């Protein structure tokens, strides 16, 4: 008869650090799970045990830390990406029907020791599978220890028995704790006796057998060694106590309970699918049984009936979907049948407002539009799986429902199609269970519950209200742009000496580089490049180049903004109704589409003039609130750099202050050029700018740019420290975090391709800052929205562009709204530096800037 005991924590930890990063398509880390399962299956197969158990720590340091506060104090907290994997490992063990043994306050070794002590005198062979040598002290005539080393493609072992331990380890099994008492254990921060190494400890134990005997015979030990032992006596006996495995825990488990049992194949198959462990599915022979198992996970058939009133909902939690192609609402109530409604949108709205029913939906904002939801302030208790998946991984390419089902549930697409939307509604429950568990494991609750979900009704209302456009103003500006383009075309053709298609890269390339003989800057596979970077470099090389750049600018204004906006104006409302996308960026910023009002030009006045066409309703005024230098303020907060913090606290001009620091002059001596260069450095640092990038931006040599950056870091050393640390964190964890724990995965941070790696490092530097700014703006929007609702005002948020919030306010409300906006935005979050908001008003958008 044989019992195999796995040291769960030891195997997991070693697998995590030994194996390369592995993740599922939904970014669940899996390297530790993979390594652990590899070991588990290998020894279940090779040892063929009659009994089996897995031991885990349960707040494992608590008992020993009460003896010695520094016990394992040198160990870093468990990495998040390992913590997330533990529940999956436990699920796998459960599916294999293997008992998990643990005891509050004690380590897995103590659980193993207790089990061995209780069973070693029975007619039973005991095999301990572990990743470290602590359990060597448990060796006995019928107890062996296998120290395993995990690799991606194989697992090797080092076998220890009571007979060979002296030869391999240097001491007998019963002397292992005495040995550790003398030499200590760096991995557990057990001190031992200062100055005594392994060879000395072995000699002492060979002569005196035990630690107690050593100290009883101190007079027989030479002076220098005796002095070390005398000085370290207390630590020696404390170390022995810390190293000794506790073997008498009151664990209530019988040998019969450890008997090996049949696996739960359905459960195991589903977990392996979810983790995308195709090799294990094949290895376990599931390929022959997949069809049978798939049948077990088929969705139930159910009768559809029309929902007439929400009183028919019997459960406290329902799952709702809106089918785009059929225009139906599907509802799954766990305590009754699946139900749907076609024309009765009011019932769905009533359901969404019901405080007593918890709703889980896909794409809540879309559903609000479908039912033409009324007062958004009455929306209650709704969860959105699309937003939950976005919070978990903002770098996904798609958040469509079928993709989420496949990524998180590994559900066969045929199941979804067979049951259509009704079946998908049932799967929504399983999807929400998985996503909510991952949100807890990733500590994303605040971002999901306090930022993304409360933002939905605000964005819905913004889309519904829209932004009024003065057609006449837009038409007049369109004519003005067309006139300028015509004039530019004439000038360009005159200089070129011929007509050609200015928008054709091939024809433009011929004119610039073959006819006018301008220096070639960059070649492509199809010829000479004429992109914006090339033209900027050629700007002062020929009079035609500035004209071409202007031509491109005006062409974009005409086609993208003037003509595009004209087509986007709603014929009924006279307003442009943008679509605000919550899942559109990796940083957490909002995106805008159809039409993209966030992309209205701001860098040059010709583009900004378009804003004159955006106006408030008659009797209303536009109020624009803009965060001042929010990203630099976040940098000051995160880096804790005293110079930056003091500059903002004292309300100094941060760019002039930086210029004074970099150039070593008084602020009064800072020239506009110096300030402009310092501004480029300030903002460039946030984006991890290189000396090459800075040299291009401010048109100086690369050497000068490097000196600027070096001087900046000399004056702001904590900024350099922060940037280095955040890149290190990203390299170790594969992601970075905002101030609110929003996570962004950083692809290629360990790439062997230098360009890809450098780009990933710049993203790592910037994402916590830009993401935190996005979070703060969203929190501010929520605060402003709630104040406007609470005070029963008619004013409404109509647009958000990066750090800017735009409100349409009745003229009589404008002063109170300006006060509300400034107060709520400046107090959205408490930083080490003040948040400053500039508030302006105007009768068109241009006037507010």
TrEMBL record:
Give the multimer and partner information: Single-chain monomer with multiple functions.
Q: From which source organism is this entry?
A: Caldicellulosiruptor saccharolyticus (strain ATCC 43494 / DSM 8903 / Tp8T 6331)
Could you tell me the EC number(s) of this protein? 2.7.7.7
Question: Among its keywords, does the record have Calcium?
Answer: no
Could you tell me what this protein is called? DNA polymerase I
What is the catalytic activity of this protein?
Answer: DNA(n) + a 2'-deoxyribonucleoside 5'-triphosphate = DNA(n+1) + diphosphate
Q: Which residues form the DNA-directed DNA polymerase family A palm domain?
A: 607-813
What function is annotated for this protein?
A: In addition to polymerase activity, this DNA polymerase exhibits 5'-3' exonuclease activity.
Q: Name one GO biological process term.
A: double-strand break repair
Start and end residues of each 5'-3' exonuclease domain: 1-261
Q: Which family does it belong to?
A: Belongs to the DNA polymerase type-A family.
């Amino acid at each position: 008869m044989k019992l195999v005991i796995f040291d769960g924590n030891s195997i997991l930890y070693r697998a995590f650090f030994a194996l390369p990063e592995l993740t599922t398509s939904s970014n669940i880390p899996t390297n530790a799970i993979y390594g652990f399962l590899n070991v588990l299956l290998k020894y279940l197969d090779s040892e063929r045990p009659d009994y089996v158990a897995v031991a885990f720590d349960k707040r494992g340091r608590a008992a020993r830390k009460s003896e010695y506060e520094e016990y394992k104090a040198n160990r870093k907290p468990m990495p998040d990406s390992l913590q997330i994997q533990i529940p999956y490992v436990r699920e796998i063990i459960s599916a294999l029907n293997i008992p998990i043994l643990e005891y509050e306050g004690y380590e897995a070794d103590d659980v193993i020791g207790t089990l061995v002590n209780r069973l070693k005198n029975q007619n039973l062979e005991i095999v301990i599978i572990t990743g470290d040598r602590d359990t060597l002290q448990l060796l006995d005539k019928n107890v062996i220890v296998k120290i395993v080393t995990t690799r991606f493609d194989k697992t090797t072992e080092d076998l220890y028995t009571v007979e060979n331990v002296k030869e391999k380890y240097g001491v007998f099994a019963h002397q292992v704790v005495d040995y550790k008492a003398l030499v200590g254990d760096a991995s557990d921060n057990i001190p031992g006796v200062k100055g005594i190494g392994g060879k000395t400890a072995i000699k002492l134990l060979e002569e005196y057998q035990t630690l107690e005997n050593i100290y009883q015979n101190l007079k027989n030990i030479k002076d220098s060694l005796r002095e070390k032992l005398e000085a370290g006596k207390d630590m020696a006996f404390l170390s022995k106590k810390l190293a000794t495995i506790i073997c008498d825990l009151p664990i209530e488990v019988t040998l019969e309970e450890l008997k090996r049992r049949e696996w739960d194949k359905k459960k195991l198959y589903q977990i392996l699918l979810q983790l995308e462990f195709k090799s294990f599915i094949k290895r376990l022979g599931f390929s022959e049984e997949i069809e049978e198992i798939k049948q077990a996970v088929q969705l139930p058939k159910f009768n559809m009936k029309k929902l007439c009133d929400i009183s028919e909902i019997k459960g406290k939690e329902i799952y709702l979907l809106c089918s785009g192609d059929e225009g139906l609402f599907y509802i799954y109530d766990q305590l009754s049948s699946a139900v749907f409604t076609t024309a009765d949108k009011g019932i769905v709205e009533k359901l969404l407002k019901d405080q007593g029913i918890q709703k889980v939906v896909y794409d809540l904002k879309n559903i609000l539009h479908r039912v033409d939801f009324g007062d958004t302030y009455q929306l209650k208790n709704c969860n959105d799986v699309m937003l939950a998946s976005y919070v978990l991984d903002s770098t996904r390419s798609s958040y469509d429902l079928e993709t989420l089902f496949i990524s998180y549930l590994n559900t066969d697409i045929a199941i979804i199609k067979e049951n259509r939307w009704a079946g998908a509604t049932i799967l929504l429950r399983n999807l929400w269970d998985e996503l909510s568990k991952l949100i807890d494991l990733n500590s994303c609750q605040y971002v999901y519950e306090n930022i993304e979900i409360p933002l939905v009704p605000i964005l819905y209302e913004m889309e519904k209200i829209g932004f009024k456009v003065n057609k006449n103003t837009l038409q007049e500006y369109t004519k003005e742009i067309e006139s300028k383009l015509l004039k530019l075309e004439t000038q360009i053709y005159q200089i070129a000496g011929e007509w050609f298609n200015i928008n054709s890269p091939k024809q433009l390339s011929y004119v610039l580089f073959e006819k006018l003989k301008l220096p070639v800057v960059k070649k492509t596979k199809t010829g000479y490049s004429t992109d914006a970077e090339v033209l900027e470099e050629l700007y002062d090389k020929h009079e035609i180049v500035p004209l071409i750049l202007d031509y491109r600018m005006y062409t974009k204004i005409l086609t993208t903004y003037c003509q595009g906006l004209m087509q986007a104006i709603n014929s009924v409302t006279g307003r442009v109704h943008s679509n605000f996308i919550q899942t559109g960026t990796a940083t957490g910023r909002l995106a805008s589409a159809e039409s993209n009002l966030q992309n209205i030009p701001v860098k040059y006045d010709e583009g900004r003039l378009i804003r004159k066409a955006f106006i408030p309703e008659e009797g209303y005024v536009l109020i624009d609130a803009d965060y001042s230098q929010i990203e630099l303020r976040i940098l000051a907060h995160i880096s804790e750099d005293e110079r930056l913090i003091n500059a903002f606290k004292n309300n100094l001009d941060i760019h002039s202050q930086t210029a004074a620091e970099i150039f070593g002059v008084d602020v009064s001596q800072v020239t506009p050029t110096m300030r402009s260069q310092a501004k480029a450095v300030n903002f460039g640092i946030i984006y991890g700018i290189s000396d090459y990038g800075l040299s291009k931006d401010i048109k100086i040599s690369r050497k000068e740019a490097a000196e600027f950056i070096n001087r900046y870091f000399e004056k702001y050393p904590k900024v350099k420290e922060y940037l280095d640390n955040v890149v290190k964190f990203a390299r170790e964890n594969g992601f970075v975090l905002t101030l609110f724990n929003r996570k962004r995965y950083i692809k290629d941070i360990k790439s062997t391709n230098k360009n890809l790696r450098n780009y990933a490092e710049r993203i790592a530097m910037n994402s916590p800052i830009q993401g935190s700014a996005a979070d703060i703006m969203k929190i501010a929007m929520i605060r402003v929205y709630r104040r406007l609702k609470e005070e029963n005002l008619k004013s409404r948020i109509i647009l958000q562009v990066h750090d800017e919030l735009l409100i349409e306010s009745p003229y009589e409300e404008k002063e109170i709204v300006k006060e509300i906006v400034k107060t709520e935005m400046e107090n959205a979050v408490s930083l080490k530096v003040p948040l400053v908001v500039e508030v302006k008003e105007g009768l068109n958008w241009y006037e507010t800037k």
